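Protocol step 4 of 5: obtain the predicted structure for the target chain.
Materials: sequence only (see below). No template structures provided, no constraints applied. The aim of this step is simply to have a reference model before the mutagenesis design in step 5. Sequence pasted as it appears in the construct record:
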Amino acid sequence: MNFFTRPVMAAVAMLAVVAGTAPATASPAAALPYKCAGSTKSIDDAAYSGPWPDNWEVTVSVCAARSGATVYAYADVRWDGPAFYSTTDAVIFDGAKVRVQIKQSREGTDPVVTERDFPALKSRMEKATSSGDRNGSYRTPTVSHRAGPGALGDAVLYLDWREDGHGYRGHDYAGSPTV
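Step 4 output (structure tokens):
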């Protein structure tokens, strides 16, 4: 071993020992005790008026937690869509997204402190099994913001039915308990 190699190998070994003993840490939001509330809506496919049942059963659970002055919130969306659509390449929506909000609870309308849209729903909701079932779920990433006492998480599901000419229509769901 030459003069240069020995110190480099020692430094690499020391780094490996330090890295191996460092505790694995999860994000602060993952360890918090979340308070959740959910509600279900039966949503009619506004672009379809045929003889087959076309309602989507969509449940949204909104969860919120607090760490000091920071509030964290996410939404868990679950759906059971009708099976009459084509099983392959069905285009049902022009768009589908969920908006997660953190609100400050007040008397009257609760003002929005922060909000974020998650547009990942369209392709997930259109995906079907070989038998035509369109059941699935999606959990949004967590949003966070500083908020005063009594803040809560809230969610709105936005669906834009394919070629119905009305654009996105919002469906409000129950917010989380205050944190």
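Step 4 remarks: Residues 3-25 have pLDDT under 50 and may be disordered. The CA atoms of residues 91 and 116 lie 25 Å apart.
Proceed to step 5.
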